[in-house]
Task: structure prediction
Amino acid sequence: MSTKQKVLQYLEQHRGESVSGQELADGLAISRTSVWKAINTLKAEGYQINAATNKGYQLSVETDLLSEEAIVPLLSVALENKRIIAYKTIDSTNLEAKRIVNEDAAFEGVVVAEEQTKGRGRLGRVFFSPSESGLYMSLVLKPFADMDNATLITTAAAVAVCQAIEQLTDKKPQIKWVNDIFLDGRKICGILTEGIMDMESGTIGTIILGIGVNFRHPEADFPEEIQHIAGTLFEAKNTELTRNQLAAEIINHFYSLYGNLASRSYLDEYRKRCFILGQQVSFQERKETFQAQAVAIDDNGGLVVAMPNGEEKTITFGEISV
Ligand code: BT5
Result:
């Protein structure tokens, strides 16, 4: 860890408190000059650090920049050889994760970004990802031997996002099968799970789990075409909760479900929050639109629907409208 990273981690752990230059220097076993240099670099990167004579440095509670240093101390899961890589801006965290895996097939960890210039949804759709208002992250996972079902990963991620939000706030998010999280009738999060083939074995060698959360309302508003769909976790700037905290809790909850994914026990948590069950839905198959009633989530995360003729059918992929 560089000196700058050490100073940032210390300040993040004492957010809103004043820490003297001497305390930082002693605590981190570095010189006062190194502290001063690190503070200046962090300020230049956008961290709001207040310096008061006789009091020292204080990382403002308003500062909410995603960083490895802020996320790692909040993790309750052992990261072992996993890494967290944070970017200010990137085309897409899923694309970046794929590039990293292409370079190093063994890579496991999380890529997070403040902004995506080419945020991706499913089927080539766009996920609007402006700076300062969202959390965009991709978890790079190695599948278990008998586990390459992307729907299981997506549904577990949806549960993890809901659990993280429920733990940190008093909000009650709901799930729209298969990959959307809703709050007060609006989409606040989308999930995109992609697999990378291992050429030698012909199986999925790596899974890239992309999660995008609209944390607060974007300054320049949502684009017209999604204004009636998109919502946010918070309306305005929230100083109680940071995106780093949300990122850490999503990671904590996801990994604790992932270890036990094959048991499917988490699917009950999915069903509880899935608001479409019992409702009339429409879906497309081979360009034809069908109406049906959503009946259940099966043990592979598929959606069971009752067709008008009473026949039951399981949808494993795609989009439903309510
Ligand atoms: C998704 O696709 O919702 C998956 C989104 C995954 C985004 C994450 S961010 C980190 C990682 N890196 C990436 O590049 N992607 C992942 P889908 O179900 O296809 O929904 C896309 C549709 O949602 C669009 O066609 C819009 O209608 C709507 N939409 C776009 N941006 C949105 C936003 N910010 N909030 C809510 N809805 C949005």
